[in-house]
Design a protein that fits this description.
disordered N terminus, alpha+beta, 2 helices, 175 residues, globular, single chain
Length: 175
Amino acid sequence: MTSSPSPYPSWEQPSHPKLIKVHRIAGAHLSYSTSLVSLPAGSLFSPIENHFFIKDRDWTSVEAADGTHIDLNSDLFFVNHSCAPSLEYDVNRMEVRVSRDRDLHRGDLLTFFYPSTEWDMAQPFECHCNDQLCLGTIKGASGLGKARLQKYWLNMHIRERLENQAERETKETAG
């Protein structure tokens, strides 16, 4: 039995030939990417370009604002999740930066913290990053709470929703 081809990638390959090496592995969600460059912590890795807005979230989209999702339409699609990410996806500035707490080296896995953009994941999954502080099942920021997310860089729409969630919980406790 053969499976039908995936709609990805739909963009010209490679989209970031000087930055990203995509490692394609047959099977669901096994492909990954590594860095072709070394950069200091906090530096610009790449602008988010060629993206387009989509109506509904899905496992391939990135939440760009409350209720708004984008298809990355580039090799940035192959940057996987980690609880100890090498990159930060800043959807307010439409750029990808090297994580603030570590340098990026040629050959490093390219990862970002999915709850930094996602309030509720379209397709939750079990994380296998092997970091000692791994969060386990990744469902998005909504179920993690403000305290558990304090150590992570988060997009503005996630920070705002966490504040609203904390305010509601405070009112419910007081009421």
